[in-house]
């Protein structure tokens, strides 16, 4: 039976290619950026690992500044569509984490190929639906269906954050509830 429980010690966030020249072309792009801001703020406050990538930054620009400022680590640059290249694979492996939260752009290309590779690597993959996007809704929807069929958990920002903290009335609960309101 697959483990669907998230815990802070065994979970990291992988944010894929939310970049200056790509984000404006994405369906519901503003909402996706906002949800990623919430997630990144929570990861920082909860002291959780974040890995992020940039697809061909010379052409697509850097990670959006409002997101980049919330991430301590430098981005992993890539030209392959899958973010699961040697550098990212080594970073994930060395972290010892098995639950990978995935956000980013575009759902049907880079996110899809990364999720497929993570699943083949035997990771528990959680695709955050309100944190991923494509230029068209149809491509977004189709990619989510394919990833779910492959074995990824299809979830959302609030479900993930409340699953990570587990309990109300704690300092972490105050952080998360404030972020999602």
Short description:
The chain is α/β, with parallel strands linked by helices and 181 residues long. The protein contains eight helices and six strands; from the N terminus they run E-H-E-H-H-E-H-E-H-E-H-E-H-H.
- Order of strands, widest sheet: 3-2-1-4-5-6
Q: Note the gap between the termini.
A: 34 Å
* Main pleated-sheet profile: 6 strands, parallel
Number of strands: 6
Secondary-structure content class: alpha/beta
Explain the overall architecture.
It contains 8 helices and 6 strands; from the N terminus they run βαβααβαβαβαβαα. The protein has helices at 29-45, 57-60, 65-68, 86-95, 107-120, 137-150, 157-165, 171-180, and strands spanning 11-16, 50-55, 76-78, 99-105, 124-133, 153-155. Strands 3-2-1-4-5-6 form a 6-stranded parallel beta sheet, with helices on both faces. The longest helix has 17 residues, at 29-45. It is globular, with a radius of gyration of 15 Å.
């Amino acid at each position: 039976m697959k483990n669907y429980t998230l815990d802070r010690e065994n979970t990291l966030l992988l944010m894929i290619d939310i970049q200056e020249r790509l984000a404006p072309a994405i369906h519901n792009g503003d909402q996706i950026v906002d949800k990623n801001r919430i997630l990144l703020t929570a990861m920082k406050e909860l002291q959780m690992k974040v890995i992020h990538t940039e697809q061909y930054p010379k052409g697509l620009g850097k990670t959006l500044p409002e997101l980049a400022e919330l991430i301590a680590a430098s981005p992993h640059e890539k030209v392959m569509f899958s973010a699961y290249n040697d550098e990212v694979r080594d970073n994930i492996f060395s972290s010892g984490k098995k639950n990978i939260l995935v956000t980013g752009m575009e759902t049907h290309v880079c996110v899809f190929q990364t999720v497929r590779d993570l699943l083949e690597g035997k990771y528990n993959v959680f695709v955050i639906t309100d944190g991923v996007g494509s230029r068209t809704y149809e491509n977004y929807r189709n990619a989510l269906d394919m990833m779910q069929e492959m074995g990824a958990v299809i979830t959302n920002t609030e479900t993930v954050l409340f699953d990570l903290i587990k309990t109300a009335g704690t300092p972490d609960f105050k952080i998360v509830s404030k972020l999602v309101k």
